[in-house]
Write a structure and sequence with these properties.
Length: 325
Amino acid sequence: MNDVKELEAGLDEFRETFSRLKEEIQKAIVGYDELLTDTLVAVFCRGHVLLEGVPGLGKTFLVRTLAQVMGLQPGRIQCTPDLMPADILGTHIVNENDDGRRVLHFERGPVFANLVLVDEVNRATPKTQAALLEVMQEGGVTAGGETMKLPQPFFVMATQNPMEMEGTYPLPEAQADRFLFKLQVPFPDHQTLVEISRRTSAFDEPDLAAIVSGEDLTRFQKTVAQVPVADHITSYAADLILSTHPGEKSSSMVNDYVSYGASPRGLQALIRSARVHAALDGRTAVSEADIRRVGLSALRHRVILNFQGEAEAIAVDGLIKELLD
């Protein structure tokens, strides 16, 4: 009984903190209520986020603001075709010690931060993109036979432009799968554009307070991870993952247009993020509605179309919505 009360008290504190975080971010970011919620959900799930949208929508500013209100050390990597793995991970350089002897010293790269913005990730070459794999999955960097752990908590938020494809390298499926969510950054409506103009036409930037620390963040991550998930909910999520794969029991649309579906990592993403939504709704158990709420964000980058699907320009979001319905 005490464990249940402790969990409820922890979730109450989490809800209040989540609300304060959104309010603070919205002092700087106009609109994007759903996008902000999904981004914060990913952070509390210890997941990486891929933000997709045309230039000028504030993707970079969002990540910078997030680091500020969470008291995290930010890092930034601007991807270009000539960017090398050593430019992001770091490299060994020769220094002189106090005795005048030459020694090898590892100069750390920009990934050694809490919240790393990888801007225009699809502009980096496959070699550099691959260097991010260990960073995102293991939370460490191996150089010269030595493995160095990254500071905790650690998140990667990558952006990509879906329109300009010349000179870009689409993320391999294995790397896209490392992102908990792929979020679409929508174009602002008329009212939001007017408000953006009002807030940003001057040179003053909003004074943002740090609502949580890294230690608080880690504590809340552990709290929401304790939200129980019933067996039938896990079974529902597993059925959803299986329905994205072609097979006898799959829909005709999946069989016609999908090459292969979501991985077991997709199931983990559904369960982990559904726990956060249950906590935000004041419930101590996950429901099917929580799974459906995160279905698009967790699966849209994990469902790979076949040649026919690509040729007919089938929308992956529409396909997933059909499965959810």
